[in-house]
Amino acid sequence: QVQLQDSGPGLVEPSQTLSLTCTVSGGSITTKNYAWSWIRQPPGKGLEWMGAISYGGITDYSPSLKSRTTISRDTSKNQFTLHLSSVTPQDTAVYYCAGGRRVGGTIWSDYDYRGQGTQVTVSA
Predict the structure, then answer these.
(1) Is 7 exposed, middle or buried (0-12, 13-18, 19+ CB in 10 A)?
(2) Which among 49, 3, 52 is positioned nearest to 28, based on CA atoms?
(3) pLDDT tens digit string along 77-100?
(4) DSSP code of 1?
(5) Residue 40 burial (C-beta neighbours within 10 Å; 0-12, 13-18, 19+)
(6) 25-49: per-residue pLDDT in tens?
(7) Element (H or E) spanning 59, and its range?
(8) Which of 17, 57, 59, 72 places its Cα 20 to 30 Å from the Cα of 34?
């Protein structure tokens, strides 16, 4: 059974870079035709897809976040990482990692697997 575990700091100061890591177990992030996404949910709002890295290492980002977002991976550790730079309080959200055969989805049924979510608050 594939499991995702996201981890990272729960509090980030404004203008800093938010970094979260997702560790995948029970399966490989290089599994053909799978992509590994980061999704967030601000308080009181719906899911926002942020970006993804494919099984082959190709990245794709939401246009609205592309200038601030980098997703990378470490295949030796079966992990992928989100970096979101220049954060503001508007980036406060629960951040999730997820895996599936599609990217860009904003409902959970678009994904086969997801992590438990990490609450990230941007505040001084």
Answers:
(1) middle
(2) 3
(3) 999 999 999 999 999 999 999 999
(4) -
(5) buried
(6) 999 999 999 999 999 999 999 999 9
(7) strand 59-61
(8) 17
Query: In a 10 Å sphere around its CB, with 0-12 CB exposed, 13-18 middle and 19+ buried, how is residue 50 labelled?
Result: buried
Structure tokens at 66: 């592309």
What's CA 55's distance to the chain center, in Å? 15
| Beta bridge partner(s), residue 93 | 120
- Residue 124 gets which letter from DSSP? -
Q: What distance in Å separates the CA atoms of residue 62 and residue 47, rounded to the nearest whole number? A: 13
Q: With bands split at pLDDT 50, 70 and 90, how would you rate the model's confidence at 75?
A: very high
Q: What is the pLDDT of residue 6?
A: 94
- Distance of alpha carbon 62 from its chain centroid, rounded? 12
Tell me the β-bridge partners of 60: 52
Mean per-residue pLDDT, 45-64? 98
